[in-house]
């Protein structure tokens, strides 16, 4: 989301950017062959969806190590390279005549607190840089609840030559059990202040109020510090997102 502008022209550009963010598809390595990925991208292009987020995805249930399809991609870096090839009109069937380039904007995931599989933050950043060097146009971060974590992450990215926009990912908390569930599932930390307030909540309604207030605080600070955009993880719950956007913009 981009802040409202003072002129009608700038606000129109904000609305266009907002629509473009909505028209985004996640493309996964897991469960797809390279051919199936190509078919999906062709269909998305036909539907007018030009913004894709290239993700490796998780392994299937019970799988401790990610295993791609026999002719699929091992990681998001390989997936980005395939999408870049399609942007150049290069399809898997190399002898196609009059092949049409597919004009995609490519996003990838970044992990301010390190991907749980990475051996250390430094190596994790190198993996991210490989995706950017392969042709990614922007980065969307994993959720975080302390903005300084994002700012430090951006600085570390810039130090190693990652220059693309880095979009912060926010998750409005709406359930009391997310105090323990989110850190466990996503390998992230909750700030002491937020954790203490959630621990005091009597029910989900209380937790939702705390989560909404915290997201408003985060979003206002990020916008004030010129974050390129905001990515909100809704997971099917959007009513508090409306409150947050109204409070921020």
Order of helices and strands: HEHEHEHEHEHHHEH
Radius of gyration: 19 Å
Structural class category: alpha/beta
How many beta strands in the DSSP annotation? 6
CA distance, first residue to last residue = 9 Å
Query: Which descriptor suits the 3D outline?
Result: elongated
Strand content: 5-15%
Which parts are unreliable, with pLDDT below 50 for 5 consecutive residues or more? 1-7, 9-22
Task: Output the strand order for the largest sheet.
Answer: 1-2-3-4-5-6
Helix count, per DSSP?
9
Largest sheet: 6 strands, parallel
Helical fraction? 40-55%
pLDDT averaged over residues? 87
Describe the protein in words.
The protein has 249 residues and is of the alpha/beta class. The protein is built from 9 helices and 6 strands, in the order αβαβαβαβαβαααβα. It has helices at 8-22, 34-46, 76-87, 121-134, 147-159, 178-186, 192-200, 204-224, 239-248; strands spanning 24-28, 51-55, 105-110, 138-143, 166-170, 231-232. It has a 6-stranded parallel β-sheet with strand order 1-2-3-4-5-6. α3 runs parallel beside α4 and α8 runs parallel beside α9 (239-248). It is elongated. The termini are close together. Mean pLDDT is 87; it is low at 1-7 and 9-22.
Provide the descriptors you would attach to this structure in a database record.
six-stranded parallel beta sheet; elongated; disordered N terminus; 9 helices; alpha/beta; 6 strands
Structure summarized in a few sentences:
The chain is an alpha/beta fold and 249 residues long. The protein has nine helices and six strands; from the N terminus they run αβαβαβαβαβαααβα. Helix 3 (76-87) runs parallel beside helix 4 and helix 8 (204-224) packs parallel to helix 9 (239-248).
């Amino acid at each position: 989301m981009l802040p409202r502008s003072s002129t009608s022209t700038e606000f129109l550009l904000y609305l266009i950017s907002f629509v473009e963010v909505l028209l985004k598809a996640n493309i996964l390595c897991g469960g797809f062959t390279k051919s199936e990925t190509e078919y999906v991208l062709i269909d998305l292009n036909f539907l007018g969806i030009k913004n894709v987020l290239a993700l490796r995805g998780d392994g299937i249930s019970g799988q401790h190590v990610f295993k791609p399809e026999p002719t699929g991609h091992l990681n998001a870096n390989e997936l980005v390279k395939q999408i870049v090839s399609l942007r150049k009109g290069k399809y898997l069937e190399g002898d196609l005549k009059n092949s049409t380039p597919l004009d995609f904007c490519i996003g990838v995931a970044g992990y301010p607190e390190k991907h749980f599989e990475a051996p250390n933050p430094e190596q994790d950043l190198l993996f991210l840089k490989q995706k950017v060097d392969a042709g990614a146009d922007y980065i969307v971060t994993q959720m975080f609840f302390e903005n300084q974590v994002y700012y430090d992450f951006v600085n570390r990215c810039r130090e190693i030559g990652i220059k693309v926009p880095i979009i912060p990912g926010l998750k409005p908390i709406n359930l009391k059990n997310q105090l323990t569930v989110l850190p466990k599932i996503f390998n992230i930390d909750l700030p002491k202040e937020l954790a203490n307030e959630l621990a005091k909540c009597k029910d989900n309604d209380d937790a939702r109020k705390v989560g909404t207030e915290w997201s408003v605080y985060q979003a206002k600070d990020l916008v004030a510090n010129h974050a390129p955009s905001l990515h909100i993880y809704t997971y099917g719950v959007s009513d508090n997102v409306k409150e947050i956007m109204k409070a921020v913009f």
